[in-house]
Structure formats: C-alpha cells, structure tokens
Amino acid sequence: MFRLTVIYDNKASQGFTESWGFAALIETSSETLLFDTGWDGPLLLRHMKSLNIDPVNIRKLIISHQHWDHIGGLPEVLQVNPGLEVYVPASLSENLKKEIEKRASLIEIKEPIEISQGINSTGELGDKVKEQALVLDTGNGCYVLTGCAHPGLAEILDTVSRYGKVKGIIGGLHDNEEFERLRRMELIAAGHCTTHRERIKQIFPTKFIEIEVGLRLELK
Could you report the per-residue pLDDT of 60-80, keeping only the tens digit for each? Predict the structure, then answer.
C-alpha cells in the first residue's frame, strides 16, 4: 500500500494556496519520496508544514521533466535536505544536473528502473518533451503517477503494462484525448495541466477525482 499526498497543484483545498505546478509525496512502509517540486519552493515547504510533513524525512526526489513548474522548488528542497537521491531524466540540462550534483546524489534515468520497493520509473519517454512517470505496484495492480504526460497516454500506458494491470492514473494529463485508454481503470485523478478535465469527468463520473493540494489517497 502507498499513501499519496498532493502538496502542490493549480487547485487547492481550504487552508492551502493554489499555484501552477505539481508535486506529490509518496509514503511507503519503508521510506518517503517526493515527485516533482512545483515552481515556488517556499510555498511547497509551507504546504508540507501544514500537512505535518517533515522534508528531512524525504529520502528520494524524482523529477518528471524539466519544465519550470515541476523543478522550481528544487533549491529549497535540497537546502533543507542535502544529500537526497535525485532521479532525473538523462535529457535534463547538463548545467542543471551539475548544480544538483553539488547538493545531492544524482541518478540519471534512461531506461525503466526500480527506485524503491514497488516503485518503478517508466524510463525516459517521449520525443519533443522527455518525461518519466512512476509506476506504483501495490501487488494488486498498478497506479501511474504523471507530471504532465507529455509523451501521451498510449506510450506511458504501453510501458506500464509490463508491470501488470493498471488500476488508476494520478497527475497531469496535459491535452491527451486518448480517453479510451482510461476506460478499464478504477481511479482517474486528474489535475494540474489536464486540458480536458471536464470531459474526462463527464465520461467517467464514478472514477474521476479532482486533484487539489491536500488530497490524500490510500492506494491498495
């Protein structure tokens, strides 16, 4: 089982601040991981404090892709928790990788790789925008965590299918219109950059969950 908490998004529940970008915390039985950082580092840390999340307890940081709204909080996260393992797409800016290496242990991702028990990277996908997503394998099916899904749902889900049944998807879905690929899922939690959010909600009303800061999901 995984506990996933949205800590940065364009929408926010009461007591939090909406801001363009995305970040989510993943808690397992053995460690805590952070996926993306939003763009405003101080705001990210304030949200963590409000959610009783101590950034010092984060062991691994995964960056989905290089766009500003997913990496902006990097300096603040690395300042409060130096020595993190940071997993980035190999295509990330060489200068940015050098800066990360000054404060953290840098792991470049090209191919699918296990990051933590039950948590795998899809590897670097896509053409114009290189991006990695995460596969959360509960042992009873998998959930996909995306930053923006720039490579497209087909490429992401074809890659994830090697891990077994895909039970749900969480994160930004950008302007993807491959709605049929979502039909067999039990959970569709769309947020951040999802262009067709209302259309997805209309097609899958019983499966759809609106992402906002403060949302917590128990993934089993």
Answer: 999 999 999 999 999 999 999
